[in-house]
């Protein structure tokens, strides 16, 4: 494939921007500066392309995480001023990189983004029982966290007369704070579980999703997942590495 097409497809820039990068000698391969966008690059060589001596991700699929701040809904609607897309890089819209699931406007924490549709579907499916871990703080409507809460969550909390949550795990930190691990992503599930336990959520922050954990990312910080992290995600939903 032509060099300029590979670079544009990677999200490095528009066709016009990519041509300018090439003209200025910012693209290299195996120590050689590439001066023409018409150069044909083999599949074997494209992963060795460098931009300002830094590796370029030319993968068909892209994988990112964000430490979502509160105050934004998980939406890619560019017309909505409260949508998370307003603070995402342009490449997310350009490459159709979408969030895996949603976090409410008043919820912060880990969001995974990808344009790998099959992986997204599997990560969201309750079939694969991917754990989502949340840190939460509550106001007490009935009683403080206790062993009965742990057991009820373990058995699956009844959200109403007809709907029961899947069995989950509650780790108590204090009378009013805990970690909750869910294996599905029902609408407002954390808040509904807590309400059924006689508590109202005041702080909700997702710390991990499957094998991916927030590290020291600041509010709104975005980083690309490394290859090892991506492969762990695929393995967790029984996808082969060639689907990366």
UniProtKB/TrEMBL annotation:
| Record domain RNA-binding S4: where | 1-36
Q: Which UniProt keywords apply?
A: Isomerase, RNA-binding
Q: Name one GO molecular function term.
A: RNA binding
The EC number of this protein is: 5.4.99.-
SUPFAM superfamilies noted in UniProt: Alpha-L RNA-binding motif (SSF55174), Pseudouridine synthase (SSF55120)
Any one of the GO BP annotations: enzyme-directed rRNA pseudouridine synthesis
Pseudouridine synthase RsuA/RluA-like domain location is 63-195
Family the UniProt entry places it in? Belongs to the pseudouridine synthase RsuA family.
NCBIfam families linked? pseudouridine synthase (TIGR00093)
Q: What name does this protein carry?
A: Pseudouridine synthase
Give the species this sequence originates from: Fastidiosipila sanguinis
Query: Upper taxonomic classification of the species?
Result: Bacteria, Bacillati, Bacillota, Clostridia, Eubacteriales
